[in-house]
What we know:
By secondary structure, this protein is α+β, with helices and mostly antiparallel strands. The protein has a single domain, classed as HIT family, subunit A (2-Layer Sandwich), CATH 3.30.428. 26% of the residues lie in helices and 27% in strands. The strands form two sheets. The chain has a ten-stranded antiparallel sheet, sandwiched between helices.
Amino acid sequence: MLHFTQEAFHSRIVLPNGELADRPIEIRTHPITGRTCRITYSRGEEREPSAESLPEPPPFAADRGKCPFCRSQMASQTPQLPHELCSEGRMIRGTSTLFPNLFPYGRYSAVSLFDDHHFVEIGSACLQSYADSFLNCRDYLLRVLSHDPAAVFMAITQNHLPSAGGSLLHPHLQVQADRTPANNQLFLQRRAGDYRQQFGTGLFSDYLQYENKVGRRCIGSTGPWQWLAAFAPEGFFEIWGILPGVTSLRQTTDDHWQALAQGVLNTQKFYRSLGRNGYNLGLLLLDDSSDDLELRVILTVRSNYAPWVRSDFTGFEVMLGDMATFSAPELTAERARTFWQHTYA
Length: 345
């Protein structure tokens, strides 16, 4: 059903000292997308500027005076939801506040803050603040679905620090819903539907079943969420969380989102151990009653936000379309497992 294919070979070069050297390379094909990635193991020998330890906070980390997401400015500088979605204008869930994106990406585009902390270093957030923010997103999307049942293409994303695309330092999630799918949503809708029709089973459940059998890339669990290193990563140190059997927001409980928050923070702590301070998160949802696409979150680390740090995307990724990473997913899983052995508050 799903094919986990990999090809290993060597590139032979002559080193500056005249010795012959075989540089190992591996090409893996993504079982779901069919896209290839390249693991160029020798690149792990390269020095990564500023990744020896966690960089210092950005120079504007203490500048709350102009931040529209800090509570002292929020009421005057952020928009409000239309009355049909929220009569109060903003949604409050515990420490989290949700309001529309001032620069929306679609019909329903909102921002969910964690709390009033202006700068939070990776891996140091409060668990409950993440859970509250996720739950606020869930509640907002359910309101959108009730108001506009055609807006079934939904996503929850995060860009932590400018190196990951974040425009504001104050930690927040982006949440959106639309009637028109993004490219990845359209692909997953078709792929999961075709897979269900052909095999009668869930795409991500079968993926997880294979990985649990192999075991080499499995990391751990937080509640019902199962965490693993991506077989053919499309980003550095890519980690997936899969919630098997759950295909709709309406099937989720508060405990599901609490457990998701725990796994996200575990991943952040792992990234922090690598000396990295930025990352992206994405949870794509399809709530069209098809029962085909199970919930899956993806996290990838990004280059540090620090002076003189190179981007993690080169011409190979941008122009050739292949991810070129340097760490085997099996090693990622091995190094990450320790962060699933403890519960963090």
